[in-house]
């Protein structure tokens, strides 16, 4: 049963959408930043639907799925590229990013045992976003510009991690993994927003 406090409900009534940080741009950074923005948009929908536990559950699942899918792409593709092309500095940055992911995963695991619509569920999900924002900002402003500069002479052409995937290495791997339907993982989530609900999300 929904039990969010009146104070929390008033705070959610004035939601300020989170936006990705200012960054230098480029195919690699833009692809990752687009994924980051989707996380924020899904979380905004979760907040917007305070009082409707069913919709909050759908948007919470969509958010968790997006974070999980994106993390797999980064851990399997981007972080190894950082270690390969940036040497010791790349390993240092990748290890820090993996540590950030581990903290997020622990909170998402905790979220699975909580009831949507409760103060605790809202608090833990907010903590996930508060961990992700500086992590994502650091990737967009620091890590990825370094990587992008290091491999700028390679041929690649991604515009987003999905739905269109580039066809030149190494980024067809990046796009494919970040957009891959990890069916077993996704099947563990019971409900998601409908396609119509997702299309209705307005990105300012």
UniProtKB/TrEMBL annotation:
What is this protein's name? HHE domain-containing protein
What organism does the UniProt record list as the source?
Gymnopilus junonius
Q: Which chain regions cross the lipid bilayer? A: none
InterPro entries the UniProt entry points to: Hemerythrin-like
Tell me the ranges covered by the Hemerythrin-like domain, including all copies: 29-147
